[in-house]
Design goal:
Blueprint (H helix, E strand, L loop, with lengths): L5 H20 L2 H19 L3 E7 L5 E9 L13 E2 L4 H10 L1 E4 L10 H9 L4 E9 L2 E10 L8 H46 L9 H18 L2 E9 L2 H8 L1 H18 L6 E6 L2 E8 L2 H17 L15 E8 L7 H21 L5 E3 L1
Parallel strand pairs: 10-11
Antiparallel strand pairs: 1-2, 1-6, 2-3, 4-5, 5-6, 7-9, 7-10, 8-9
Guanosine-5'-triphosphate binds next to strand 7, helix 7 and helix 8.
Protein name: diguanylate cyclase
Keywords: Coiled coil
GO molecular function, one term: diguanylate cyclase activity
Amino acid sequence: MKAHNNNDSDSFDQLLSQLSTRLINSEPDETQSCTAEVIAAFGHYVNADRCYVFEFDPEIQRMNNTHEWVRNDFSAHIDDLQNISAGDLPFFFNQMRNNFRFIIDDVETLPKDASNEYAEFQRESIKSVICIGLVAHQKLLGFVGCDMIRQKHRWTQEDIQRLSLVSDMLANSLERQNTYQKLIETQRQLEEANLKLQAQATQDGLTAIANRRALDEKLESEVKRAKRQRTGIAVLLIDIDHFKPYNDYYGHLKGDAVLRSVAECLSNIMQRSTDFVARYGGEEFAVVMSTDSAWQALRKANELLDAIESLEIEHKKSSTEPYVTVSIGGYFEQPSIDSDIPNAIKRLLDNADKGLYQAKSDGRNCIRFR
Ligand SMILES: Nc1nc2c(ncn2[C@@H]2O[C@H](COP(=O)(O)OP(=O)(O)OP(=O)(O)O)[C@@H](O)[C@H]2O)c(=O)[nH]1
């Protein structure tokens, strides 16, 4: 076998140093191609027939071949060297766990208890093999190795030293890659948690529709839009009639179910992208709609009133029995271009509330528009 001369060693060291710089600065995709280049470079340098990287699972019970370089026509084995267990190659796994290396000049000299390994080396026509562990923070992550197929090779101190350099480089890069993956995963979890928190902050827990806070935000954006586009905006306040007697007679849990049914019914009807339904508090709901006329809003309010009664939820303790009904107060306004937004919002809510009070006074299950 060809011995290295000083030129070989110098040019290999230079190449390794360049690849190392690239690995340090590489994105995950480039890390893969750099690793492939590193093992190819080592394969050429040591005049090997096959070079590879394997990664262990955290328990060092299984390993996968992640990168492979083969000389000329030698057969590649990366596909059949996946998910290899410690039970398949016990001698090898033990050597790697205990010594972080496995160096065999002649596979014929393997001890008897390495019969599985011997059979595997025969299958791959391997005569000599060297594997050096990828170790980061005293943890064995995998190994980089070389096979000699054409002829046996006595691994020199120089081979071992240079492959150890390669393994240090790859271990650091693998460690960095794992940290990067963990960071990406943590970031994904944080974003998911943030989205959930955001949804919770603007969602009513019982009915899953928007809450009061979301309503305030919506009113502000809709008033701004109405001002800009010179359109009108209507607010409806919808209150379940005699809900206290309902709770007292049917129980709080059934009361909760009524709130959910009413919320769902309102949401099903208010389906335009500019429609908005929120739980205003207790047994009261609010609807915001962009509309050109009070008449259109009144028509929608009538639809809602009928739809709730049509749910036919029994309510024996109501003056509007036999079913659960609602009273609705509404107000429509076309904000002028110079109207003050907080005042406009206050006007919308106050007037809708006055309408609701009037509807309650006038016997409930009716609409009063101001
Ligand atoms: N089940 C249930 N009840 C609620 C919830 N929030 C508020 N309530 C009840 O809603 C009822 C509201 O009662 P009142 O304000 O007296 O109104 P009402 O009985 O509906 O009378 P009118 O509105 O005048 O027709 C109270 O009994 C509250 O306990 C809730 O989340 N679940």
